[in-house]
Design a protein that fits this description.
The complex is a heterodimer. Chain A is mainly beta. Chain A has four helices and 30 strands. A five-stranded mixed beta sheet of chain A has the order 6-7-8-9-13, with no helix packed on it. By secondary structure, chain B is an all-alpha fold. The longest helix of chain B is centred in the N-terminal third of the chain and has 14 residues. The two termini of chain B are about 25 Å apart. Classes of the chains: A mainly beta, B mainly alpha.
Chain lengths: ~425, ~150
């Protein structure tokens, strides 16, 4: 009762003081939206809507100058990349657009902006003001990446040695002879892995590289959308989208409830040559076991060959991790530093069970290793618990980026909202 | 085309909605359409729940960018031969209502003619749709490749 009374009082006091501040200074200041952009956040954090782009905002990049580049899944008015310039309030204005191609990947590093279509990787020189100098004349870094319409997006990240890493997703759910058909078994040795289902590495500074000139850096990864370079242990981490439809394909082996909870979405720590085991296995996050896939003789219990990579951490099934970011800023409290944020786009494959996700998770890290249980960091992108359950979310978090002051930016590819989350406690 | 325009103009001139309502219903198209029976819809719903719901969802609205909606689309409400063909052959890489979808629809040939007719009749009359039934004979005709 007491807290019920004091809360509105506190709020009124806060409002009065901020109004007072406003009347004293005419200078606009950075502040969260009164409703924190509709998000539920831990105590001490606030959020604002940076911009409503109205496009399918996939990944985004923020330059040291605070300019924001947003990659659209489909070009809007002929522009596949939006350039936003910040204002003092934290709101940004769309200054322009360029790049006639849709896609997912975008990353800024070392004075360049890198962006991908579903087949190619481009780079644009950034000016001293962090603006793209020649939007119509990018260098084509990589051409002709495999796109067979399924798991087609190409996510990108750079290391500190001049390499760029590109996801080439498998054009299949589980490498069946007939993709997603009931009872169809797995193709022997899964030939898809020769050209997809892994991470490819290219030089970041060399134009005109073909698919074949790249190196298959890691394999056995069904589809990766969120990936990032960990600066602490100088290593690649990726989030895999786990396989779908265990019940639909093998109804005698899995009921709908098991199918909704299996397999886990996994975080992998990737060394050169790593093999995460898709399509031969899936990870059971409830028993912490690598299970032999039913397409390859599994019965839901048989364990897979132990030679395959163990996940660094596991999360509930089908939540579609689309963004991964290691937090290197100092704005957020100590516990967040060098930990990972993961944007879960939200599930569909849990039906008829309620859907799950549509939030940003925090995964603590210690010395470059996932350490301790994950927690939901930013919630309510969907708009309500009912919209989570039905999967009819208002917003779907997709990309993550860190601003120069340590703010966390989140893009939404459903409504095109760009969010900025800040630590506001003094 | 011209005739119907004239007819529309006449109707507009006639003005009174009561008058328009009293006009005899337009003649059914030459091909006889069978109305959906509630028994077929009920059986179709059960087949839908078991085999289709994961992708197309309980509300038939599909999944953004992956699995197309079944509500109010020409693919479901239009040409039945094409619709039956989707169950028999699967579907991939087709824009629906101007949107791209990247999900893969596998062939559903484990369903027999009756089950296909029922589930298609259900989706043509569920999710706010209203269209004629799909008959076993129509499914059989497409499955055997015979043109009507």
């Amino acid at each position: 009762m007491k807290s019920n009374l004091s809360r509105p009082l506190l709020f009124t006091a806060a409002l009065a003081s901020s109004l007072g501040l406003y009347s004293l200074t005419s200078k606009p200041t950075l502040a969260p939206d009164p409703n924190n952009a509709g998000l539920k956040l831990p105590a001490g954090f606030g959020a604002l809507v940076v911009a409503e782009t109205g496009g399918r905002a996939r990944h985004l990049a923020v330059t040291p100058e605070g300019n924001i580049f947003v990659k659209l899944n489909r070009p809007k008015d002929g522009k596949g990349i939006l350039e936003l310039h910040p204002t003092a309030t934290g709101k940004a204005t769309v200054a322009g657009g360029f790049g006639s191609y849709g896609g997912t990947g975008i990353y800024a590093k070392g004075g360049y902006l890198y962006a991908s279509s579903d087949e190619d990787v481009y780079r644009y020189k950034l000016s001293a003001k962090g603006e793209v100098e020649n939007p119509a004349q990018p260098e084509k870094i990589v051409t002709g990446l495999l796109n067979r319409g399924e798991h087609e997006s190409k996510s990108i990240v750079l290391d500190n040695a001049g390499n760029i890493y590109v996801n080439v997703g498998a054009y299949s759910n589980s490498c069946q002879v007939k993709d997603r058909e009931k009872g169809s078994m797995g193709r022997q040795n899964c030939p898809i892995l020769d050209s997809a289902g892994g991470i490819w590495r290219f030089r970041a500074d060399k134009a005109g590289q073909t698919y074949g000139s790249g190196m298959r850096y890691a394999t056995g990864l069904r589809n990766v959308v969120g990936l990032d370079w960990n600066q602490q242990n100088n290593q690649l981490f990726v989030m895999q989208h786990g396989r779908d439809q265990l019940h639909d394909i093998f109804p005698a082996m899995y009921d709908t409830k098991q199918s909704a909870e299996l397999p886990a979405e996994c975080l992998y720590e990737i060394k050169q040559g790593a093999n995460a085991g898709w399509p031969f296995l899936y990870y059971n996050g409830l028993t912490h076991q690598k299970i032999l896939a039913p397409e390859y003789g599994g019965d839901g219990k048989k364990l897979a060959d132990p030679k395959y990579l163990e996940p660094a951490a596991a999360y509930p099934a089908h939540m579609a991790p689309d963004g991964l970011l290691f937090y290197t800023g100092t704005m957020f409290p100590e516990k967040y530093r060098n930990g990972a944020f993961i944007a879960f786009h939200g599930s569909w494959n849990r039906a008829p069970e309620p859907q799950k996700g549509y939030y940003v998770v925090f995964q603590p890290f210690k010395n470059g290793k996932a350490s301790g249980p994950w927690e939901v960091f930013a919630d309510n992108f969907a708009g309500s618990p009912e919209k989570v359950a039905s999967g009819r979310a208002d917003h779907k978090p997709c990309g993550l980026a860190q601003g120069p002051d340590g703010s966390l930016y989140v893009s939404d590819d459903k409504a095109g909202t760009i969010y900025r989350i800040m630590y506001t406690k003094k | 085309m011209r005739k119907s325009l004239v007819l529309l103009a006449l109707l507009a001139l006639a003005g009174s909605p009561a008058l328009a309502q009293k006009k005899p219903a337009p003649k059914a198209p030459a091909r006889k359409a069978v109305a959906a029976s509630s028994a077929a819809v009920l059986k179709g719903k059960s087949i839908y729940t078991q085999n289709c719901l994961t992708c197309h969802q309980a509300d038939g609205l599909g999944v953004d960018g992956l699995n197309p909606p079944l509500a109010k689309t020409d693919y479901v409400l239009g040409d039945k031969t094409r619709l039956i063909g989707v169950l028999l052959n699967g579907l991939k890489g087709v824009d629906i209502n101007g949107e791209e979808y990247h999900g893969v629809m596998p062939a559903q040939t484990y369903l027999n003619d009756q089950q296909m007719a029922d589930v298609l009749t259900y989706i043509r009359n569920g999710f706010g749709n209203k269209a004629s039934a799909v008959t076993v004979a129509e499914v059989k005709a497409v499955r055997t490749g015979a043109k009507k």
